[in-house]
């Protein structure tokens, strides 16, 4: 008999993980391993080196973090760190540390993020007390090695996460120097969203007979792809819930499934939607079969319009009324996307598939497009003006329906008694206003900011040489409409290198290193090209941070050539 798919422990336990980790995953609401976890965890637990092609959003962090934690000994942890994870940005260092901490809570794992810009004193104290896992950016890790505050002689596993980004940022030489400090016998794991030859070179030089994993290769069988309208919205994590509500307001689905990653997320989203006046119900693997059947009954009967579900719980679901599938985040694997959108557009019915994505998940969307051979249209979030127009439209439709079908005679006395005193047109307007307000009225919300969308054009024109000596032609794309040039009041005299700028901008603003265009460094100042929509956000982010210990002026360049 098959394992009960609703037990997280069944899915993850099948990968040979220890009980402490399984309990942590269940508590986090993870129901089953993502494909990359399924494939990567067993060979990593067995001690193999591994090269994985996987982007953000695939669950790659847990794919390497769980095996690290699996190998952690609980006694005699007096030596140096047992694992080192190198990441390109501060933001990722923090995210990965938090993930390691969450998964390894029961094991009492001591994890430390180290990155530039943070006071080194705090890092030194933590290192002295002892840590099991260090997650750091290459520059700062090398800094600690040179100060002899970080010794890597006890490291059993090194992970290079987002290796292509690290190379793009000019960290190749730093990475080589760091690897040289770790034992030859170590296990080495490399994750990268793309596999350019330089990454392959690193894998060949530093990994031993690695297991290779590539995601998103299994094309759907002919006829498996339903014909549905596919679109995506770029939205920052903090605004995702508000964006979902707004999209639903405009789309007005008859019935929809909103897919989430975890049980916790399902509960949060359900609550938020109910708060917005929708009849939404949760469906996840933590519920009994009976509870799930009741929820499905209410959806079919029309008393529930939205189902908020995990993949596991929605498997095999066939609901005739379903008009929309909404992905609250990009699914962990392109194949999962195909399964999800298969819930609509069945048997010739029409449907829509809508995906909310963070800018850094853009690559996952591309991978999905490659797999399905279909386009996902990027759309702009409805603005407050759009919403107002939509609500007025709804009011108009309701009035039209009433005019066409209702018997309105018994209200004539009201009209006649007012008509002596007021103009009939004005009476009609007042009635419309009351109806509109009764149906929810105007929108009392702010517009949701659109994050900067990474641009493929910039990605292609990147040029990074090993050793970090990247100096890109200034003004090469200076006349491009979509590019803003920023002035940084810091230059070569302060020891500034291109990778410091890229690191600071990517780390602080969340922009991908690939989105940063030409960089020009002079003695006293520097000019950096960033996508125009992101310019103000970058300036704001830089005002909160330091570069090489300074807080330089950052503004738009005043004199565009
Ligand atoms: P990553 O690709 O590592 O950045 O992970 C993307 C997101 O998926 C993170 O928010 C994780 O917490 C979440 N996640 C990772 N693995 C799973 C899983 N097996 N089930 C549900 N969520 C997951």
Structural summary, described in words:
The protein is of the alpha/beta class and 561 residues long. The protein is 40% helix and 14% strand. The strands form three sheets. Strands 3-4-2-5-6-1-7 form a seven-stranded parallel β-sheet, with helices on both faces. Strand 10 (280-283), helix 13 and strand 11 (306-310) form a beta-alpha-beta unit. The chain is globular. The protein binds adenosine monophosphate. The site of adenosine monophosphate has 13 residues, from helix 4.
Layout of helices and strands, plus pairs?
Blueprint: H1 8-13, H2 19-28, H3 35-45, E1 50-53, H4 60-70, E2 83-86, H5 90-103, E3 111-114, H6 120-129, E4 133-136, H7 138-146, E5 157-160, H8 163-168, H9 172-179, E6 187-192, H10 197-206, E7 211-214, E8 229-234, H11 240-251, E9 256-260, H12 263-275, E10 280-283, H13 289-301, E11 306-310, H14 311-314, E12 324-327, H15 334-341, E13 352-357, H16 362-372, E14 377-379, H17 384-405, H18 412-419, H19 424-438, H20 456-460, E15 483-488, H21 498-509, E16 519-521, E17 526-531, H22 535-543, E18 554-556
Parallel strand pairs: 1-6, 1-7, 2-4, 2-5, 3-4, 5-6, 8-13, 8-14, 9-11, 9-12, 10-11, 12-13
Antiparallel strand pairs: 15-17, 15-18, 16-17
Helix pairs in contact: 3-4, 4-5, 7-9, 15-16, 21-22
Bound molecules: adenosine monophosphate (AMP).
